[in-house]
Amino acid sequence: MAVCTGCSLLCDDIELEFEDGKISLTKNLCRKGEGRYRSLREDRLVPAVDGAKVGFDEAISRAAELLGDAENPLLFGWSNSSLEAQRIGIDLAKKLGATIDDTSSFCQGYLMEKVLRGEYPTCTLDEVRNFADVLIYWGSDPSSSQPRHMSRFSYFPRGEKRQRGYDEDRTAIAIDVRKSPTVVIAADGFFRIPPGGDAEFIEALLAALGGKIPKVKDKKMKKKILKLGSTLRKAEFGVVFPGLGLIYSLKDEIDKLTPLITRLNEVSSYKLIPMVGHYNMRGFNQTLLEETGHINRVSFKDGVEHGTQFAVTEAVNDCDALMVIGSDLISALPAAISKKLARIPTVAIDPHRNLTTDMARVTIPSAISGLEAGGSALRMDGVKVEFEPVIKSGYRSDVEILSRIMEAV
Amino acid sequence: MAKVEVTIVTYRDIFQEEAKEIGRYSDEYRDLSALILLDRGDMKLIKTEDGQTVQVETDGGMVVVTARLSEEDEEHPGLAFMPNSPWSNQLVSEDTGTSKIPEFKRIKAEVSATDKDVDTISELVERIRADY
Ligand code: SF4
After folding, report:
1. Same domain, A122 and A100
2. Contact between B11 and A110 using a beta-carbon 8 Å cutoff
3. The pTM is what?
4. Ligand 1: which of A10, A12, A16, A32 to mutate, judged by most atoms within 8 Å of the beta carbon?
5. CA-CA distance, A196 to A179, in Å (whole number)?
6. Looking at this predicted complex, what is its ipTM?
7. What fold is seen in the domain B3-129?
8. Are residues A154 and A168 in the same domain?
9. How many CA atoms lie within 13 A of A243 on its CB side?
């Protein structure tokens, strides 16, 4: 059985068949995971310096030079690396006196921090499968981003206390600005809100939970929210699955969610699991938190410093060397910020060619976790999942690459 | 040329996610990414049809993508959707406010019909590199 690292569900039930050392058949993968498996043969990166192919050792020594000579290096990525690689990455940042940040910095960070600090109650996905009866997908669309979430854990499966099937045993609520595939499954449980309307919806829900009339103009919606209030009160085990829709709407005002989580736990029992995308974002956040007291945006230049100035979107303004591992940062950020990134001498470590590797000075190809490299990672709910390589390849793991850079600087 | 003002919300799509895994440079990835889903009324306003190209412009940048008729049940004039991709990121402002998170899901833009072809990923890369 193999583990898929296509998303933060880390599905560990992937069956494989081989022919001549190659994977000939896969079972249980979703489309996204299927893409990751197919990518074994597509667009693999080659070691190169300034666009010219070089040997692996040469790429390592040039990378070490580029980072070692810098005053203000920034090490970014990490959510597609194993826990073991992340640890070495943090040590490398310490050794270089570098700034370190990960994708959570412009994604789930604000919420993940609340969960990791124990400020929001949480649970495992196995508990969701066994006990949860009310599921709130808020600005999240697992059907597209964590495709087996609803079938393996949250909605469709039967569990210890949920033996009668989803249509009787579970209620799915979807709060979104669009009719996503998850909304289609939730059907009557869909609440359409305008972009940025999340804070107002929180207010309306708080009113409904307190038996008050929510301040909503639309009469139908008002009734629907009141009914939702009573559904939420009757839950035995409710879970909120917040996605980027909610996070981007609230951002650093994520505290606006706190009164709702508190209230929900006064009327019943509610947990929250952030809908992380990349397979080991949570791993990085937890590891860095243990090491430094912060989940991201840390500088080791002068002891341990933390702040928004170390967010990748800011740090780009005064860093003089960049290392990106397992992330296509240039594709992921606004073009205006990417233009700045493109000017910084960059080392890119990735299994595949992408926009970031194309603009990098030094590229170092890496093995795909779960397929060509082993290790461990934290699933979106914090459960540790270990994986072994399932095929032989000449590609080096992030652990090996980072250790070599570490030795060389 | 008639223009319509919209707020663009980005989203993720499983087919596009699959294509992304396989490669940013594939035609498949472009076909599934360089899109904007518009309200029927907004399409009429700018005299465009499903499958034709449109120019989308913000203070942050400009991009040419394919217009698609949105499949929402309700009308949503002034609201448009784009898959999250380097195409949508051409439009996002660099202003990140106090959170330092870009406005990926609330992009104010103007959309108009155009004869231009959909931007290729290489063209986007060239534009990012232009100020080198
Ligand atoms: S749900 Fe995620 S981990 Fe599971 S098979 Fe799909 S991509 Fe892989």
Report:
1. no
2. no
3. 0.96
4. A32
5. 16
6. 0.94
7. Barwin-like endoglucanases (2.40.40)
8. yes
9. 25
